[in-house]
Design brief:
- With 243 residues, this protein is an alpha/beta fold.
- 13% of the residues lie in helices and 24% in strands.
- The protein contains four helices and twelve strands.
- The strands form three sheets. Strands 3-2-1-12-6 form a five-stranded mixed sheet.
- A hairpin with a 2-residue loop joins β2 and β3.
- The longest helix has 13 residues.
């Protein structure tokens, strides 16, 4: 009788398990220990929310039922000029978030009662129906007013040049007549309540009341917005939006 040495038996077991090589394979004296089969991990499927994240009942109630696109502008604080922008698309599964873009808002932050010259951006939910700019239409489906009236000059609050800020703009329907050029000066609430609140190209500093994002992001946003999906902007500081 030939006595197997332990390391030979282990090698034989290894060959059986891996299926390596060809020809006859030695059989070990003791069968290998049965392998314990681990249950498959439970897959966690992420379900899109049925309402826009970060909004409280008061804010959510202002979002129109037919809105299928929402640009959510979330300010860092009530008095902060910095914010983030996310474009949400409503699908059959719920609201799907796109990329997050850094943004500026008004120098003094946000207000529920915007007034001309207060250097605060208005809090609320507003339609997005009209666009324009100094540069030609980059491919938006919104009505686009192209002309030299969108020329920006001078410097901003931090000494930064404003040139190019209005190369691309989207009018925010705060105290304006929808369906007109962003340059239209009709003020349904009166001149004292301000107006001319836009999404426009960022100039690396706070705004007077608008929301600004980088030029490449403005072009992406213009191309993404679809009037048939009734886009809106939801804007304000984070605490105010949770009301």
């Amino acid at each position: 009788m030939i006595t197997r040495r332990p390391h030979v038996a282990l090698l034989a077991v290894s060959l059986v398990l891996t299926g390596c090589g060809g020809g006859a394979v030695a059989t070990p004296e003791r069968p290998p220990t049965p392998t314990t089969i681990q249950p498959a991990p439970t897959l966690s499927l992420e379900v899109a929310p049925q309402q826009l994240p970060g909004l409280g009942p008061k804010t959510w109630a202002k979002v129109p039922d037919d809105a299928r696109q929402a640009v959510v502008v979330t300010g860092r604080g009530k008095n902060s000029p910095r914010s983030t922008v996310v474009l949400y698309e409503r699908t059959e599964a719920g609201w799907q978030a796109g990329r997050t873009w850094p943004a500026h808002n008004a120098l003094r932050g946000w207000t529920d009662d915007h007034r001309a010259g207060d250097l605060r951006s208005p809090i609320g939910v507003f339609g997005l129906t009209d666009a324009g700019g100094r540069l030609r239409d980059p491919g938006t489906r919104l009505p686009y007013d192209h002309g030299s009236g969108f020329t920006a000059t001078g410097t901003g609050f931090e000494g930064e040049p404003l040139a190019g800020s209005f190369d691309y703009v989207i009018a925010i329907n705060y105290n304006r007549e929808p369906g007109t050029s962003p340059l239209d000066w009709t003020r349904p609430l009166g001149a004292g309540r301000g107006g001319g609140i836009w999404l426009h190209v960022d100039h690396d500093g706070p705004t007077h009341g608008c929301v600004s994002i980088a030029e490449k992001h403005m072009k992406e946003l213009l191309r993404a917005l679809d009037p048939a999906r009734h886009p809106v902007v939801v804007m304000g500081d984070a605490d105010s939006l949770t009301r």
